[in-house]
Please model this.
Amino acid sequence: MSCRHPCRSEAVQLISEGRLGWELNWSCDGCGIAADDVNRGPAPECVRGRIIERYGTGQVRVGGSGGQGGRVLKVFRDVFGWSLQDAKRAATELTTTGWRGTHVEASLVAHLLQESGIEANTHDQGCEA
Model:
């Protein structure tokens, strides 16, 4: 049963134990009900889109041929569970335009690339709104 008052919600991403996670927190001023939806793994596009709209994007770049090879593909597949084709597309972006994701995603990808011996840099793209 709904109290018919609008709910407020906020979506966030986080890194826990080296893995992506996300939360959707919402509350209602009318009836006082509040809840947190906590999940592991990449955020669904509807949540991810809200995060990017509010906070902008982060960009990861690597120099030279450092963005090609199995270590890079492994990072993208481990973080996002992507197919080999999607991971290859992201690896190509790393050395050309730079790969873009949420700030949390970019931070995790850059960190894991650096841990695997690949020099990676992050840049904030700011809010687009």
